[in-house]
Amino acid sequence: MLLSFKTALIPNNRQITAFRKASGVARHAYNWANAQIIDILATRKEGEKLKLPSAIDLHKKLVAEVKSEHAWYYEVNKNVPQKALTDLRFSHWCQLNVKSIARLGMNSQSNS
Predict the structure, then answer these.
(1) How many CB atoms lie within 10 A of CB 29?
(2) Which of 5, 36, 39, 91 is deepest in the core (most CB within 10 A)?
(3) Count of CB atoms within 10 A of residue 21's CB?
(4) Residue 112: what pLDDT?
């Protein structure tokens, strides 16, 4: 009885280079956007009301500010930084919702 398939990637040199470029762009976009969000959260703690930018807002700002400085962003697909920004925004959304649930005294385990 066949229970599973095992798959392995065996990339050639061009594919390895493409993977490394994509992971570098994703890492840079994630870290850049994370710094932007941390700055906004620090400003919010000081009393100024700022909304957290969405992944789309972050991508527009990334294109306007960062891509003009770093030509290597254009060597990979545009979906690479977009996915990194979406993942970052989702992780911050989850963290903020967990904190707000804890602040309200709700237990996420009990629904009764």
Answers:
(1) 25
(2) 36
(3) 16
(4) 45
The residue whose two tokens read 């996420």 is: 108
> Rounded to an integer, what distance in angstroms lies between the CA atom of residue 25 and that of residue 98?
29
Whether the full predicted model's pTM is greater than 0.70, yes or no, is yes
Q: For the chain, how many helices (H) and strands (E)?
A: 3, 0
- The amino acid at residue 8 is A
Query: Using only C-alpha atoms, what is the Rg of the chain?
Result: 19
Residue with tokens 């890492």: 27
What number of other Cβ atoms are within 10 A of residue 44's Cβ?
Answer: 13
Please report the pLDDT score of residue 50 as a whole number. 84
State the Cα–Cα distance between residues 98 and 49, nearest whole angstrom: 20
The encoded tokens of residue 103 equal 């602040």
Q: Which two tokens stand for residue 32?
A: 């850049």
68-95 burial by CB neighbour count: b if 16+ within 10 A, else e?
eeeeebeebeeebbbbbbbebbeebeee
Q: What is the pLDDT of residue 93?
A: 79
